[in-house]
Amino acid sequence: MTAIVLFMAGIAAVAGWWLSQQRLAAKPWLEEGVIGEFAGGGALPLPAAKIGLGVFLAVVGSLFALFISAYSMRMALIDWRSLPVPKLLWFNTGVLIVSSAALQWAQVSARRDDSDNVLLGLLAGGVSAVVFVIGQLLAWQQLNAAGYFLTANPANAFFYLITAVHGLHVLGGLAALGKTSARAWRGVEIPRLRLSLSVELCAMYWHFLLLVWLILFALLTGWADDLATICRQLLT
Fold first, then answer.
1. What is the CATH number of domain 83-235?
2. What is the pTM of this model?
3. b/e for 45-65, b at 16 or more Cβ within 10 A?
4. 69, 76 Cβ separation under 8 angstroms
5. What is the tens place of the pLDDT at every residue in 2-38?
């Protein structure tokens, strides 16, 4: 519950800051001069695509916050039996970090009008993301082979549910990334890609997925509980 409250407070703070930049209380009919000369008279500070992605990420973040809260409350019951985290998840985490770094490289290259590195970064990010999804499926296979089935224990069900929902969001991101990569492959001019924000939005989405996965990974491995215990000890 604390995680949800903190997350919602963060979302409210960001939304309040953004609204404060829009001059909602302004009276443009009282302004004098050419339109666009006064603050707020031109385009919005943030493009609509970025705002839309931000709202979507806020909703997705709220969903994962609910999962984390439910996981933390459910594991306190006596029938909870934690399952061993497959070592393959460490490799998958590293692959997702590489994927996020590759898209950041593509974003920086787009700002420099470096078409070759933009395409290379997009392809590297996409291939790494596909490897991540395959690695997650292999981790599922390992757990099933060891007898940790979906319906055997609440801990098992939460593991499969959380990793599946995150994996679905990665697959959704791959669809957008594939479209952007196809445009770069066809030789679309980098300024057009930069103006459409395709590369930047893909990078933002991938950084978000990486952050969510790192939090989930810490939760599944028990690191989050250890950190929470240390924080409580420090506060008391």
1. 1.20.120.80
2. 0.78
3. eeeeeeeebbeebbebbeebb
4. no
5. 545 555 555 556 555 555 555 545 445 455 555 444 4
